[in-house]
Amino acid sequence: MGAAPGYSRRAVLRRLGTGALAAALSGCALGPGTGSAADSVMPLRAAAKAGRRRYGAAVSSELLGKDAGYRDLIRRECDIIVPEWEMKWYNIQKNPDRYDFSGCDKLAAFASENGMELRGHTLVWHLGLPDWAKTRLKEAQGRDVLHTWMNTLMTRYAGVVRSWDVVNEAVEPTDDRPDGLRESDWLAAFGTRYISDSFKMAAEIAPKAELVYNDYGTEHNARWSRDRRVAILRLLERVKGEGGRIDALGLQSHLRLGDPWDPKAFGEFLREVQDMGIKPIVTEMDVRADRASGDASAIDAKVADLYTSYLETVFANSRCDTVVTWGLTDRYTFQRRRYADDRPLPFDDDLNPKKAAAAVARILRDEG
Ligand code: XIL
Fold first, then answer.
1. What is the pLDDT of residues 141-176, one digit of tens each?
2. What is the pLDDT of residue 17?
3. Nearest CA-CA partner of 231 in 172, 183, 184
4. Whose CA is nearest to atom 6 of ligand 1?
5. Which residues, at least 6 apart from 185, have a Cβ–Cβ distance to it below 8 Å?
6. Which of 164, 284, 333, 342 to mutate to test the pocket of ligand 1 (most atoms within 8 A of CB)?
7. What's the gap in Å between 85 CA and the centre of ligand 1?
8. Residue 137: left (phi > 0), alpha (psi -120 to 50), or beta?
């Protein structure tokens, strides 16, 4: 895949001279664990800073409250935190007359105290609706219900959220619509314009925020993934055509060893997105290893290789400035609900950096 020279971060570092790199490298810290060579990985936060990027992870307020080691790790490694589940509509407003902001407020406070940004995830999602809203959206006042939800959230967290996942997972080519959109309660309530309407509302409420369309499954050499790329490009064009503003495409990046990863097709897709004036960002990365063979060390090497290949492709083909992983340590990964021995994240169960952490640090610092 051809790297577009204008996107190069290495060029920026070169212009800054070696001083910036040396200063960044001096931020190198030992991991909390054994002190072996594998532990001397630059904190991802520092590596990202040196590469003029940001790194972050999905977190939960409960874990931050009860696990001090985890809390310290998040503080050391992250510029950004994302609520893994606490900012979903069904958690905040289980009943129409009662909001529960307790989890999100704790995360907002933690982010502010530690000079981090909180990513807003997620406003419009087919799996995010509380049951009561599924009916209410379809009634005459449905648009007001949506506006109240978006306005309440976006206003409350205006000080700490800079980037919002406005619409999440709106395409599903296997639903067999010619436009590739997902059959959902949103589509049933508002028709195809719900996507651009949501972006317009978001732009009105938070004119300075980064507005993101977030989705998965765009990186494979497989018909279903190609269909998703096509449907997403159509969606981005449609929103633009209907007068909505999308600043960034969130690439969830839930990868799996053994899937037919296709850097060439993915790179072309990224360039098309970037050429539309929309910046790709990585929002939920992890690498499942449930089908990989070998011991933990061999698996960690394969996982790190896929992190490397994927992120190198992203940086070579876009102006991506943000990488978020869906969790930080294997101790707490939602992937273990499916496969108890999975090891998809940059840090291990003992909070020590894995080969993936070293790979991500290197790439954040100087790839692109
Ligand atoms: C998942 C969380 O990890 C779970 O804890 C929660 O129960 C359901 O949501 N794509 C997304 C995320 O955009 O919000 C999902 O997170 C994972 C897939």
1. 999 999 999 999 999 999 999 999 999 999 999 999
2. 35
3. 172
4. 85
5. 126, 129, 133, 134, 137, 138
6. 284
7. 6
8. alpha
**Residue 26 pLDDT > 50, yes or no?**
no
CA–CA distance, 198 with 120 (Å, rounded to integer): 14
Q: Check if 339 has its Cβ closer than 6 Å to any atom of ligand 1.
A: no
pLDDT in tens, 232-282: 999 999 999 999 999 999 999 999 999 999 999 999 999 999 999 999 999
Does the pTM surpass 0.85? The reply is yes
C-beta of residue 323 within 8 angstroms of C-beta of residue 311: yes
Strand partners, 325: 57, 285
CA 223 to ligand 1 center in whole angstroms:
24
Dihedral angle over CA of 327, 38, 79, 336, nearest 10:
0
C-alpha to C-alpha distance for 20 and 365, rounded to whole angstroms: 10
SS (H, E, C) the chain: CCCCHHHCHHHHHHHHCHHHHHHHHCCCEECCCCCCHHHEECCHHHHHHHCCCEEEEEECHHHHHHCHHHHHHHHHHCCEEEECCCCCHHHHCCECCECCCHHHHHHHHHHHHCCCEEEEEEEEECCCCCHHHHHHCCCCCHHHHHHHHHHHHHHHCCCCEEEEEEEECCECHHHCCCCCECCCHHHHHHCCCHHHHHHHHHHHHCCCCEEEEEECCCCECCHHHHHHHHHHHHHHHHHHHCCCCCCEEEECCEEECCCCECHHHHHHHHHHHHHCCCEEEEEEEEEECCCCCCCHHHHHHHHHHHHHHHHHHHHHHCCCCEEEECCCEHHHCHHHHCCCCCCCCCECCCCCECHHHHHHHHHHHHCC
What distance in Å separates the CA atoms of residue 171 and residue 162, rounded to the nearest whole number? 25
**Pocket mutation for ligand 1, best pick of 81, 86, 326 (most atoms within 8 Å of C-beta):** 326
CB 80 within 8 A of CB 118: yes
DSSP β-bridge partners for residue 181: 171
